[in-house]
UniProtKB/TrEMBL annotation:
Keywords: Cell inner membrane, Cell membrane, Ion channel, Ion transport, Membrane, Transmembrane, Transmembrane helix, Transport. InterPro entries: LSM_dom_sf, MS_channel_1st, MS_channel_C, MSC_TM_helix, MscS_archaea/bacteria_type, MscS_beta-dom_sf, MscS_channel_2nd, MscS_channel_C_sf. Mechanosensitive channel that participates in the regulation of osmotic pressure changes within the cell, opening in response to stretch forces in the membrane lipid bilayer, without the need for other proteins. Contributes to normal resistance to hypoosmotic shock. Forms an ion channel of 1.0 nanosiemens conductance with a slight preference for anions. It is a multi-pass membrane protein. Homoheptamer. Signal peptide: none annotated. This is Small-conductance mechanosensitive channel. The gene is mscS. Residues 114-179 form the Mechanosensitive ion channel MscS domain.
Length: 299
């Protein structure tokens, strides 16, 4: 190549114009991308912080749920910002979004169970059917709630065994919370013999309930006849107590009732059945006249 062609002022001018145009174009795009990143980051941080702060005004919203929602919004805004930045450099964002959507669908199908647990955890944290320390029956498992996460719940059953239950199973089934109410009612069924004095037995039961300070006066305790069974007259001693005391109180009352009944001479019958054998006279006469031969003489 001739040096004169390289140093041709017109060629140099054209090259300089091309470089200036390229620098101007991509420089402006770079500046725009940086501005988008800065604005997107500031917006994501501000909005996520506002969500965290406002959700804290609701007592039913757990801190874990607040953090999850705030982070989800923040990274969603950053993802949109990243797509906009790529668009500044000529990247086909439509196809990019389609690829991300397809990948998200594939991941969602692969992690269907995990996402179900996540959704269940969000609902549990949002509606709060129980809290840590409550004794619950969740998904057929009974125990004290030890820890609640977005994916599973930890329960300690009465035997001291740690149960890890997926949140999807808990949210999709009935939940019984034994601790949410401050007081709890319980019944103690007691059977007495048909020969015993019903009014006397009722009076003994009322005295036992009245003498126990842990039995609440309001609602008032009650004793009534429930049924006439095969072997006993069934009475029920009904009372209310604090939820934290009902189990030891119930055990104590059962023992006290037994001791009081023994002192009053009131029996608690056990199941029994009378059997009546019917034999016609001819068969009985034949058996008496021809007794069976002793086994030692059998031939």
């Amino acid at each position: 190549m001739d040096i004169n062609e390289v140093l041709d002022p017109a060629a140099i001018e054209r090259a300089a114009a091309a470089v200036i145009a390229m620098v101007t174009t991509y420089g402006l795009r770079m500046i725009g991308a940086v501005l988008l990143l800065v604005v997107g980051w500031i917006a994501a941080s501000w909005i996520s912080h506002a969500i965290w702060r406002n959700l804290g005004k609701f007592k039913r919203v757990d801190d874990m749920l607040r953090g999850f929602v705030a982070s989800l919004v923040k990274y969603g805004i950053l993802a949109v910002t990243l797509i906009a930045v790529l668009g500044q450099f000529g990247v086909q964002t439509t196809s990019f979004v389609a690829v991300i959507g397809a990948a998200g669908l594939a991941i969602g199908l692969a992690l269907q169970g995990t996402l179900s647990n996540l959704a269940g955890g969000v609902m549990l944290l949002l509606f709060r059917p129980f809290k840590v320390g409550d004794f619950v029956d969740a998904s057929g498992q009974m125990g004290t709630v030890k820890h609640l996460t977005l994916f599973f719940t930890e329960l300690a059953n009465p035997e001291g065994v740690l149960l890890i239950v997926p949140n999807a199973e808990i949210w999709g089934k009935r939940i019984t919370n034994f601790s949410v109410n401050p007081v709890r009612r319980f019944d103690i069924p007691v059977g007495i013999s048909y020969s015993d004095d019903i009014d006397g037995a009722i009076a003994v039961l009322k005295d036992v309930l009245a003498a126990e300070p842990r039995v609440l006066a309001d609602p008032a305790p009650d004793v009534f006849v429930e049924s006439l069974a095969d072997n006993s007259v069934n009475l029920v001693a009904r009372c209310w107590a604090k939820s934290s005391e009902w189990w030891p109180l119930k055990s104590h009352l059962i023992k006290t009732i037994k001791v009081a009944f023994d002192a009053a001479g009131i029996s608690i019958p056990f199941p029994q059945r009378d059997m009546h054998l019917r034999v016609d006279a001819g068969t009985l006469r034949a058996v008496l006249q021809n007794p069976a031969e002793p086994p030692s003489q059998a031939r």
